[in-house]
C-alpha cells in the first residue's frame, strides 16, 4: 500500500528510509534464525537429560522476538501502520486549525 506521506519525500530520503527499513527487517530475520537454532539446541539438550527447562528461555526469548517483530513490522517509521497514524494525526491537526 502506498502511503500519502511517501509522495512528499525526496528520492534520497526514500532511499535512506528504504535501506533503514530493509536493515531492520534483516535484523529481525537474523534474530529469528538465531532464536530457532539456539532453542533447538537447548530443547535437544534438555530432552537428552529428561528435563523440560528449555521452555523457559524459549518463552522469554520468544517474547523478545515478538516485541522486536512488532516494532519492525508495525511500528517503525515508514511502516504502513506508522504512516497511517501520522496521516491521521495530520488530518486531525488540520481540522483543528481550521476551527
Question: How would you describe what is shown here?
Answer:
This protein has 3 helices and no strands. The longest helix is centred in the first third of the chain and has 38 residues, at 11-48. By secondary structure, the chain is an all-alpha fold. It has one domain (10-98). The radius of gyration is 20 Å and the shape is elongated. Residues 1-5 have low confidence and may be disordered.
Question: Keywords, please?
Answer:
single chain; 99 residues; mainly alpha; 0% strand; elongated; disordered N terminus; transmembrane; transmembrane helix; 2TM domain-containing protein; membrane
In N-to-C order, the SSE pattern is HHH
Major sheet: size, sense and barrel closure?
none
Rough outline: elongated
Radius of gyration based on Cα positions: 20 Å
* Number of structurally distinct domains: 1
Number of helices: 3
Mean pLDDT: 86
Structural class: mainly alpha
Helix content class:
over 70%
Care to give the gist of this entry?
Helices cover 79% and strands 0% of the residues. It is mostly helical. The chain crosses the membrane at residues 26-47, 53-76.
Describe how the helices and strands are arranged.
Layout: H1 11-48, H2 55-75, H3 80-98
Helix pairs in contact: 1-2
Amino acid at each position: 500500500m502506498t502511503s500519502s506521506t511517501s509522495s512528499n519525500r525526496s528520492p534520497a530520503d526514500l532511499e535512506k528510509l528504504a535501506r533503514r527499513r530493509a536493515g531492520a527487517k534483516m535484523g529481525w530475520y537474523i534474530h529469528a534464525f538465531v532464536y530457532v537454532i539456539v532453542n533447538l539446541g537447548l530443547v535437544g539438550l534438555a530432552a537428552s537429560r529428561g528435563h523440560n527447562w528449555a521452555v523457559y528461555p524459549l518463552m522469554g526469548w520468544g517474547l523478545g522476538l515478538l516485541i522486536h517483530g512488532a516494532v519492525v513490522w508495525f511500528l517503525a517509521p515508514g511502516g504502513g501502520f506508522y504512516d497511517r497514524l501520522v496521516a491521521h494525526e495530520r488530518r486531525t491537526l488540520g481540522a483543528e486549525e481550521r476551527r
